[in-house]
Structure formats: structure tokens, C-alpha cells
Amino acid sequence: MSEWILAPESSNIIRYSYEETNQILTVEFNSGSRYDYYDVPTHIFEGMKTADSKGKYLNSNVKGHYRYARQ
Amino acid sequence: MRIDPSFIGTVQDVMGTTVTVALSNEVVTGVSFIEGECYRIGQVGSFVRIPIGFSDLYGLVSQVGAGAAPVNELESSPYGNRWLQIQLIGERMRDEQFQRGISQHPTIEDEVHIVTEKDLHAIYGPSDPIDFVSIGHLASAESIPAYVDINKLVTRHSAIVGSTGCGKSTTVAGLLNSISDKSHFPSARILVLDIHGEYSKALKGNANVFKISADSTKEEKELQIPFWALNFEEMTKFAFGNLDNSKYAIISDWVMKLKLESLSNQPIRGIKYNTVTVDTPIPFCLHKLWYELYKKDFMTVIPKPGGASDEVDPAYAKDNHDDNLVGDAMSITPPTYRTIKTTGPAAERVQWGKEPIGIRQQLATLGSKLRDPRYNFICNPGDWKPDINGKINSDLDSLIKNWIGNTKPITILDLSGIPSMILNDIIGAVLRIIYDAVYWGRNLPEGARERPLLLILEEAHTYLGKDNSGSAALAVKRIAKEGRKYGVGMMVVSQRPSEIDTTILSQCGTTLAMRLANNVDRGHVSGAASDNLKGLFEMLPILRTGEAIIVGEAVSLPIRTIIDPPPFDRKPDSSDPKVASHGSEEEGFEGPGGWNQKKEEEDYKPMINQWRMQSAKYDHEFYKRKEDQGENNE
Questions:
Q1: Contact A10 B588 (CB under 8 A)
Q2: Chain B 555-614, CB below 8 Å of chain A: which residues?
Q3: CATH 3.10.150.10 fits domain B133-206+408-570
Q4: ipTM at complex level
Q5: CATH 3.40.50.300 residue window(s) in chain B
Q6: Cα maximum dimension of chain B
Q7: Domain coordinates of chain A in residue numbers?
Q8: What is the pairing mode between strands B453-457 and B488-494?
Q9: Pair B173, B573: CB distance under 8 Å
Q10: Would the CB atoms of B600 and A30 count as touching at under 8 Å?
Q11: For the segment B199-229, what is each residue's pLDDT rounded down to a tens digit?
């Protein structure tokens, strides 16, 4: 398991992590449920790290582009 | 002017345990200040105190206002109908513990006082700190912990009832966290029969999880229930369905034969050859049973010219290499026989074998069950699977150890992957196996008299229905009636108490009633509870989420409590799906799903994949590989 990155400024996301080898982005929402997004390229993850609003970034650049599944 | 600020009125009428109180005109405001705390007077469900000499009587307010007024009260009072009706429940001598039951009654004009927080502490405080465990706090006063007597909670059985969405599973998880606390109870022994697979998340760290198609990355282990641990009736019901008497007898003979064969191949200490019955838990090969019965039912034979009627050879068909197609038991390949031929030269004739049993359809079902991966947990149970000679790698002791003697205090048997058709029988079998084991081991340190066992029966209405005479109901009834003697307690959790057999509910000494909207269910709960405080149950439809009324043996008096929920990240996995998701395009949403979000590009192939694999755990790599292969094939 790769390291969690906290997202204290986001109103929806608690934390997220990225596994480089399998290209899986894991996001933990406020509800406590975790979702895996598959085949997410590294630059998207980098973009997520620098984005002002993680929720917006996730919504526009990840959701709808990559398959996800609830953990 | 009032001298004592806690004084609220005087006793006017006493009938049995019902006391009618006239409120004093000095408490018109409805509030009273005692030692800086504000108390509301005349709240339904609150306590009052009636001092009589050296002891205090305590009662619960059940009715307020006009309805509580005596029948012949005609003169109009200046401040409205200011009456309380009270149910007496217990008393406390000065400087002693609160006790249920009363030794004397109040009489007319006795003073009635409001109960302060100090009094509440004395009433609800644990009478013995070893027996009592705090599971939450009073709904009316957050500073007062709610204690339950864990001895009675566990061994005298309990029931948790409440409509869906009232926080039942969260409450169960919170309760289990409190009573399996490692610092307090390092040897707690709790087994959860989890029908929907909700609890593994809520109890992680404290529980071992056994489930079908386990996820080893989450430290789950494969659930195995070997068929040979079932008794003959349970086993035949699973394998063959309902059979008539003659077929039942024939199969019983065969099982007996295979069990004896297995015993001679692998002797088991303590089991004598001549004491084995068809129900003795001895391994035997179910594949072989299927194979032998198949041969019996389908065989065709070649009669020997001039020979007796039983001097026959089986008429196997032959493959390309001229070998007999004898089939194979372990790979469930049936033998192939030649078709009947009654004309032509005598040497070519083929006849039916003698006395077929007539269970062709049942054999086909059993064959498919042996192949079906969904039934692997019972037909091919890993180390507990007997080989063709009935030999096994692991015996029942390791199975039982997994279930009730594990490294962690709680064991969860996640039954969500078991086909619903056989769920009832499987639950019955699991309970019977455990109960039989602890019953015969009752004098041992491993038995449940020395280390009591608590069984949590989730969604009990699904298998303990009134008209359900299945094996689960039988096993539960047995535990309900005699489990206490052997240290086996159960906690029945259900949203439809009215659908549960009343003999089971009435054996539950303690009831935790949560919000219940349905009238029939409510009547059932207040009827089955041993306390006569029906008034308290009137509150059932308006309880808040997570709030419960606890009545019965485990509490010194009924309490309305909020049970400590488990920590935030350890809530049970049963939250409602979001139809409308909170959030916006600009700020993101609270989760990826919901009708108000833009539609995903969907692909239903993985969905069917999961179905075929019988697993809810998405394996993206597996899916991608399939995808590639599929494209290559096209």
C-alpha cells in the first residue's frame, strides 16, 4: 500500500493514494468509503496533488475517464 | 413558596403499582433549577422519587395531563389538568444500592420529587464493576453511562430489534466493540453469523473473518463447512433434496458403508467400529457416494449365457482406444454404459442392471453441486475434503478452533456467498456442530462453561420464521432453551420481530428495542419483554437513530440509551446508497455515484465476470486479460 496523502482542504475527500506500478488511484471519501480508480496515468495523479480543489479535479479529470470500483 | 426545589407534587391515588400524582401549583413553569442544573418536570419516561421514611421509591412517568387525572376529577383546576401517572419500579434504602421491586407503597399526600443527576448516578451506577460494562450513555443525560450486566446479557440471551435504517448494525458493532475490549475481556469469545457481510469492516482488528471466496489481502480466510460434519438428515437434504423412505434407507446404507470404509483406512481414536452410526461425524467421500449410486442407477449389464441372474458383467461403452469408459469419481465423470439390446445373438444382449434406486434426477443435481464453485465450501472444503478413501488432512478440531478458539475475540462467519436455498440448513448445521462440540466438552477449559460463547444471529427473521421448521430454527430453539447451562448465549438481531418464532423471542432475557415503526412488531416486542413497563415501549416509533430502550435481566431497570457507535472509519458496511449525491461540479461530490452526476461510460462485461466468478471483489488485471483474449479470438 502506498502512502496516503491527506486532503484537509477538501470538503468531500479525506485522503488519497497512488500506486505507481498498477496505476491505481485510491480515494477515501468523507463517508469512509474507498474507491479505486484503475489505469490512472502518473500525470493525472501529479495534477491531483497540485490541484486547488481535489474534488473538482477528481470530478472533471478522473471520474468518467477511468474505471472505478468500490473497495 | 417551595422549600425543596425538587418537590413537584403529592400522591393522590395508588392502585397496584400505578400512582397518580397531582402536580403542585408552585411548579407551573414546568422547569425546576436544582444545583444549577435545569430539569423539565413531567417528561414521559423520566423518573420521580417518593421518599418514605428511610427509603426512596422510584417510579417512571408514564402519562401526563388530562388522561392521567382521576375519573371523578370534575372541578376545573386553575392551571389545567396537572396530573402525572407513575409506574413504580424500585426502591433504594439510604446509602444502599437501587433494587427492583418495592417493599412498601406510598400513600396519599406523600411528596413526589424530581430525580436529579446525582440520584440517576446512584440508580444507574454499576452495582458490581466486574459484572457491568458501559455500552453507551443515557439518552436523557450524556454524563451518565449506561451499564449492562454482561453475565446476564450473554448467558440469558438477548434480542436487538428495530426497523431498517434505525442504526441496528452500527449498534451491534458498537456493542461488540465494548464487550470485546481487549483490556477488559482478553478472552472474549464471540461468533457472528453475518448474512450480508456487513461486519468485517466494523470489527476489523478485533475479528477473524471467514468467507466464501476470501480476499487474502484483507486477511480474510476461506469459509469451509465440510459436508461430513453434517448429520445424515442435513447431508441428504443438501445433497439429494427430499427423498422418500425407501430411497432414504438405501442411501443411508451406502453412507454407512463408506463411513466404515473410511474408518478402517484412517482409524479415529475413540470411535469403535460397532458404535458408528450414519450420523457420526466421520469423513467419507461424497464424490464416491455419487459415483457408486450413479453406477447402481444407470448400469447396464451383459448377462452370461447359461449363468445365474446375478452373474453379470457391467456393459461399459468403449472409447477410441478400446478402453472401458469407467468414469472417475473425483473429477465427477460418470461411467458410460452401452444401451439396452434385447434382440439378436445372446452374446450381444445388454440388459438393465438389477434394482436401480430411481434417483437419477437427484444424482444429476448432486453431480452439478459437486462441480459448482459456489458449493466448494461444503463439497470441496480444502483440508477437510476427504480423498476417495475417506482420508482427510485436517480433522474437525481445527475447524472448531477456527470458529470459536481463534486468535481474536470475535469470529465472523460471512455467509453472504452461500446460495439462499441452503442458507437455512447451513446455519442450522453450523450452530448444531458448535453446540454439540461445546455440549460434550462442557467440563473442559475449551468448553463454553469456562469460556462462554456468544452467538450473534444477524437478520434472524430470514431463518427463524414462525412457520419455519428448518434446521436453523431447531438449533436456535435448542440453544435458547438449554444454552445457558452450557455457557452458550445468543443475541438475536432482527428488523421483523413479529416474524420470529415466539418461543425464541420469549427466551431472550434482555431486549434492546430500537426504533420500530410497524405496529405488529411493536406489539410483539412489548409482549415478549419480561418487564411490565409497557408505557416505555410507546416511545418505540419516535426513538432517534442509534437510540435504544433496554429492558430485561441485564439492566437493573429499563434504560433509554444511546449506544456508543464504533469509530468513524469502522462503521458497518450497510450505509444507504446515494440516489442524490451532495456536492457540485465545481467542488466535487461526496462520492462517485448518484443520479445527479454525469453518466459514466459503462461496460457490463466486468459485471458478468464478477457473477461468473461469484466474487464481488473487482480484479481489474483479470478483467483486462479477459478483454485482450476476447479481442484476439474475434
A1: yes
A2: 568-569, 571, 575, 583, 585-592, 597-598, 600-601, 603, 606
A3: no
A4: 0.83
A5: 133-206+408-570
A6: 122
A7: 5-70
A8: parallel
A9: no
A10: no
A11: 887 887 788 999 887 777 778 888 899 998 8
